[in-house]
TrEMBL record:
Source organism of the structure: Streptomyces morookaense
Record has Hydrolase as a keyword: yes
Molecular-function annotations in GO: phosphatase activity
SMART domains tied to this protein: GAF, PAS, PP2C_SIG
GO biological process assignments: regulation of DNA-templated transcription
Full protein name: SpoIIE family protein phosphatase
SUPFAM superfamilies: ATPase domain of HSP90 chaperone/DNA topoisomerase II/histidine kinase, GAF domain-like, PP2C-like, PYP-like sensor domain (PAS domain)
Length: 877
């Protein structure tokens, strides 16, 4: 007959093997079977390894206690496994085989063992019989030398006190008189609470009165003696009843340093036993949680729920931790429940439908089927009865511990007091571990946010900002991420970027989200749950399953292709939406999701909220930069000639380079335009400075030149009027060097030019014989003096001649102390004899770029005009 059972499920990860070993060890220690622990742990370790490592499935471990022994079952859900042959044990496996050693060990160590198969699972079980013990022996310690024995007074006194059902003292022996100074007459009839200095946790009601109602209790407290001093004692309480059924409690007390007289041997590892033998006091926390205590929060919480379940012989247990404001509880550990579905789930604390109303005080539910929703965590789990107690530190709610059973009416007030007593002992340790974890998370969060801020500040490109937002959240904060953007207040949210930690899931996720209406752009801080993706995924997966089975609807139509089951699992967990708010406007939403049955931790949501604020500002800055860059480039393009006209009999080539990021036009400019029939105007100039200010003067100069030239003014008059217009700009004016000319192609194949060079680098003329000479004389630049007297010079380009005009970005190209200069430019032009205008301009540009390794820091314009050589007339045959 089975007298106790304990079960746990372990996920298919490597650390589950160690967790399973701990589970079996703790279970058997709690049942008082230390003799078979080592064999059970070895067998469990091998069988769980086969399940979670080799088979890759979750392992279900069930321990059952029966008369004379313990049975342990390990089940997995990997049915595609060959059946073991009924052969001698030696053929089950070998030391050199990767698998099969678990069955070999079962055959060697277990009293009985077996393998059971079903269509969906495989179970390996083994039984270990308890060894025979000598009659009368419960536990024994080794023989010790006298100096290693605990210290005690020559006369060890054991106070025997009996307490009635009201808590008053009815019996007080002579040793109690000697220990505490009160005679039996002085103390009989008084409540024990008047003497006891109970070390209960502040803010809880559990004390000596509650402990006296427990069936058994053992531990330390203080008794206030006749002289007023508090004497530390170690006590053992036993609840009894007389022949008439009246309950009372018998208390045995000794001085605390003599606790070995009463203290029950602890089922603890050898190190703890040795500590007890040396007389060191045992911490009540260690008594409950075991030693050594886990040094991480998750391990401590898991050990707590397992010990609580075993202590009350329950089917499941769980522990929830409160948020900082104590308004919600977050599931952090459970056993006997579908932990993968419940981990990090949150429930409100206040009373109401679907809320956790029994969080702030101990509570017992005899039958949950009569009060559905009383404990939301246990909905649809098959649990009927539950006892819950709060974890409090200095009166503040820090968590809740619960133990549940599948049968109704399993628990009462006595179990609640026992569980509350345990909760009081572990509350401080849990809170300390939680604060340590929060500190580590906050440090990591600060580093994460600093790095995120640096990355977001490093770009002003909108698409790159969207990609960074998603890449920083996946997989650090979420399994998948989607970013919605809103162009303006009248526009609907648009799906702009989708990312999943598994790249194969991105297309399916994007297809799914494109069919789901986007979340509402609500300007409210914090994350809100969005259920639409999960619902759509499950619905689409169902349609796909029906289609794969060939099922049609009533009209005979087979549902169209939907999202695969893999995509549904990828987005089937919790999905939250965080608004992207910048400058008091919602510019988008950051959507984070988890896979099926998974939840976000509160700390992760808070970190995501901080990230969303930074990302929103970066995205809005990128948007503003893109808009302003587009406007700037559009205005700058308007300053360039739309296209160069075709000049009969003259080759023309222009190369233009503006300095500065994002600039299409700077302080250098060029133009070539028809003036009247047969005449063309051309110009190349350089405004002092670069950037938008210089570009403004560029626009003024280019448009003024065209207007004045087409009004019939000659070159000097055009430049004099332009000079006056520049001076009229006042403080916004800029110096301007300008080469302006008029071009007349001639019938004989030559071209006549009239040029004015106002402070600009002189134009160079390349003749057919390779000689290079200046084609004009220098005159004053524009924008300095009001009265200018300019003149024009006439130049005739013969067939094969080239006129090269450049800005000072070419001639002043530097590397260190060297400068290209007018002479260097002339040397380059000398090598261009016979080349077309385009080839001449390209060779000059190449020479400028190769002159220095650093990129050019000044605007640059090159205008080359060439009169082609006349072809000899064709001779008719």
């Amino acid at each position: 007959m089975i007298t106790a059972r304990a079960a746990a499920t372990f996920e298919p990860v490597g650390r589950s093997v160690a967790a399973a070993r701990t589970f079996v060890r703790d279970t058997l220690q709690g049942w008082g079977f230390p003799d078979i622990i080592d064999d059970a742990v070895v067998l469990t370790s091998e069988l769980v390894t086969n399940a979670v490592v080799h088979a890759g499935t979750a392992a279900e471990v069930l321990c059952t206690r029966a008369e004379g022994g313990v049975c342990v079952e390990v089940a997995d859900r990997y049915p595609d496994r060959e059946l073991p042959l009924q052969s001698p044990a030696g053929r089950l496996g070998g030391v050199d085989r990767e698998g099969g050693r678990g069955l070999l060990l079962c055959a060697a160590l277990a009293s009985r063992w077996g393998v059971e198969y079903t269509s969906t699972r495989k179970k390996v079980w083994f039984r270990l019989d308890l060894p025979d013990r000598p009659a009368g022996t419960r536990s024994a310690g080794p023989a010790l030398p006298a100096e290693a024995l605990p210290l005690a007074d020559p006369r060890v006194r054991v106070a025997v006190i009996q307490i009635d059902r009201t808590g008053c003292i009815t019996f007080w022996n002579d040793d109690a008189h000697e220990l505490f100074g009160f005679t039996a007459d002085q103390i009989t009839g008084k409540p024990l609470t008047d003497l006891a200095a109970w070390p209960h946790t502040p803010g809880t009601s559990t004390g000596i009165a509650e402990a006296l109602r427990l069936s058994r209790w053992e531990g330390s407290y203080g008794i206030r003696g006749a002289d007023g001093r508090v004497i530390p004692v170690y006590a053992s309480h036993l609840r009894v009843r007389d022949a008439e059924g009246a309950p009372s409690t018998v208390c045995l007390l000794v001085r605390d340093e003599e606790r070995a007289v009463l203290q029950s041997p602890q089922r603890a590892p050898a190190a703890d036993a040795a500590t007890a033998e040396r007389g060191t006091a045992t911490d009540p926390f260690e008594v409950f949680i075991g030693s050594p205590a886990p040094d991480d929060l998750d391990g401590l919480l898991q050990r707590t729920v397992e010990r609580a379940r075993d202590m009350l012989d329950g089917d499941s247990a769980y522990l929830l931790l409160a948020t900082d404001d104590e308004t919600e509880l977050e599931v952090r550990a459970s056993t006997g429940l579908p932990s993968a579905r419940q981990r990090f789930a949150r429930v409100p604390v206040e009373a109401g439908t679907g809320r956790y109303g029994s969080a702030r005080m101990p509570a017992v539910h005899d039958d949950l089927s009569a009060v559905p929703g009383a404990v939301p965590l246990l909905a649809n789990t098959g649990m009927r009865s539950v006892v819950t107690v709060p974890l409090k530190v200095e009166g503040r709610l820090t968590g809740s511990l619960g133990v549940a059973a599948e049968s109704p009416r399993r628990y009462g007030n006595e179990e609640a007091l026992r569980l509350q007593f345990a909760a009081d002992r572990i509350a401080l340790a849990v809170e300390s571990a939680r604060l340590g974890e929060l500190e580590r998370l906050r440090r990591g969060s600060l580093s994460f946010l600093v790095e995120a801020s640096d990355l977001l500040a490093g770009t002003l490109d909108r698409d790159q900002t969207l990609a960074l937002m998603a890449q920083m959240t996946v997989p650090t904060l979420a399994t998948w991420c989607a970013v919605y953007t809103i162009a303006d207040q009248s526009s609907d949210p648009e799906l702009s970027y989708v990312l999943h930690e598994d790249e194969d899931r991105i297309d399916g996720l994007k297809n799914l989200l494109s069919k789901v209406p986007p979340p509402d752009p609500v300007n409210s801080p914090g994350a809100r749950v969005w259920s639409a993706p999960s619902e759509a995924a499950h619905s689409a997966a169902l349609r796909s399953s029906l289609r794969s089975l060939g099922l049609a609807d009533a009209s005979g139509h087979i549902p169209g292709p939907g999202t695969s089951l893999a995509t549904a699992a990828a987005v089937g967990g919790e999905t939250v939406v965080l608004p992207l708010v910048a400058r008091n406007r919602v510019i988008g939403m950051l959507t984070l999701g988890k896979p099926s049955d998974d939840h976000f931790r509160q700390e992760i949501l808070e970190l995501a909220e901080d990230l969303s604020r930074r990302a929103a500002l970066a995205l809005d800055n990128a948007r503003l930069y893109s808009e302003r860059t587009a406007i700037s480039q559009s205005l700058q393009r308007s300053l360039l000639p739309p296209e160069l006209p075709h000049v009969p009999g003259v080759e023309v080539e222009v190369i233009y380079r503006a300095a500065g990021e994002g600039n299409e036009v700077g302080g250098d400019f060029y133009d070539l335009f028809p003036i009247r029939d047969g005449a063309y105007g051309f110009a190349i100039g350089d405004v002092c400075g670069t950037g938008p200010e210089a570009a403004a003067v560029t626009g003024l100069a280019r448009h003024a030149l065209r207007l004045l030239a087409r009004e019939g003014f000659g070159g000097p008059a055009v430049l004099e009027r332009l000079n006056a217009a520049i001076l009229d700009e006042g403080a916004r004016s800029r110096f301007l060097t300008l080469l302006y000319g008029e071009l007349w192609p001639q019938h004989d194949g030559s071209a006549v030019l009239k040029v004015v060079c106002a402070g600009h680098p002189l134009p160079l003329r390349l003749r057919q014989d390779g000689s290079v000479e200046a084609a004009a004389e220098p005159q004053p630049l524009l924008g300095v003096m009001e009265d200018l007297e300019l003149y024009e010079q006439t130049v005739t380009l013969d067939p094969g001649d080239v006129l090269l005009c450049v800005t000072d970005g070419v001639t002043e190209r530097r590397e260190g102390t060297r400068m290209l200069g007018d002479d260097g430019l002339a040397d380059v032009l000398t090598t261009c004899t016979g080349l077309t205008a385009g080839a001449v301009a390209a060779r000059v540009l190449r020479a400028v770029e190769r002159f220095a390794a650093e990129p050019a820091s000044d605007d640059m314009a090159i205008l080359a005009m060439r009169v082609p050589e006349r072809q000899p007339p064709r001779q008719d045959d």
